[in-house]
Amino acid sequence: MKFDFDGIQAFVAIAETGGFTAASEYLHVTQTALTRRIQKLESYLDLRLIDRTTRYVELTPVGREFLPQAKSIVEEVTRAVDRLKDVSKHGVGHFTIASIPTMASYKLPEAIKRYSLTHPGNHIRVIDTNAFDVRDAVLHGKAELGVGMSTEHHPELEETPLLEEPYMFFCPADHPLGNKKRVVWSDLNDSHLITISTLSANRVLMDYQLAKHGIKLSGTYEVRHLSTALGLVSAGVGVAILPESTLEPRIRSGISRILLSGPTIKRQIVVFRRRKSTLSPAASAFFDLLVKNQGREDDTH
Fold first, then answer.
1. Which of 8, 3, 17, 68 is nearest to 38 (CA)?
2. How far apart, in whole angstroms, are the C-alpha atoms of residue 167 and residue 101?
3. DSSP single-letter state for residue 249
């Protein structure tokens, strides 16, 4: 069904103001334009809604019957448009963000807390998953935003830098290296190393960077998740090379996190979004908060 909102709006304005002159002023259009809207609506309906002469304007019986429904249509559309304007202006709405687990527990909580203060009615769905699935979630529209590792660039994804963090040496506090401020890769030769599976983007990145320096990782144990590796370290099973954010200093207990150099390997954390795709107002507001705040935090370090 063809919907002629302009014609219906013009009809209601004429009925409520009592004439074409007042209605045209109310709608901020010329009388000629207003007349054309009414003529187009009546032509489509094949009915006369308004009788007009040079001296008077009045609704036909059909027009009087149609007026309540017409007013309801105009009011509903106006409310819907106002709601959309409110969504755009205030970032109202819901969105989904995909994130690697370390960032979901390290970076996102504070950002979500700040966001909730300015957007208290919004709902955020967080998909905490591995780096490869984060990219896929954004690519296939399952999430508007993604927080993950910058590895192989995809032409359909836009990457905005969030932070850069090093891979560090994690060991039990009573380990022979536990009191050092810095260790080098050769210090790990006699350690029971817990490595991350080659299915992990972290392992892929480390292997690539270390290969440039002729270093190859080989461990006594292999796990898929960083949290599993951390659990084994905590139990005294071995040591691990993990991203700095795997364990925050304020919550660690019995684990030493030590700078690893010679070389220092870092990973770049970025925010993914689809190119040529408009973010919802809610997601756009969160993106701005996350990225702009990171810039302020970096200035304090």
1. 8
2. 16
3. G
Placement of tokens 């032509």 in the chain: 43
Cα–Cα distance list, 224 to 60, 114, 228 (Å): 76, 32, 7
Q: Give the separation between CA 164 and CA 102, rounded to whole angstroms.
A: 13
pLDDT single digits (tens) 14-59: 999 988 989 999 999 999 999 999 999 999 888 999 998 767 788 9
User: What single-letter DSSP state applies at residue 246?
Assistant: G
In the block, which residue shows the tokens 């994130």?
99
Instruction: Give residue 297's pLDDT.
Output: 47
Cα gap 97→272, rounded to integer Å = 10
Q: What is the largest CA-CA distance in the chain?
A: 103
Question: Is the pTM higher than 0.90?
Answer: no
Tokens of 165: 């963090």
Residue 179's Cβ-count burial label (10 Å; 0-12, 13-18, 19+) is exposed
Between vectors from CA 148 to CA 147 and to CA 153, what angle results, nearest 5°?
115
Rg (CA), the chain: 31
Quick one: which H or E segment has residue 78?
helix 61-90
Quick one: which of 130, 124, 94 has its CA closest to 109?
Answer: 124
What is the C-alpha separation between 136 and 149, in angstroms, rounded?
A: 13
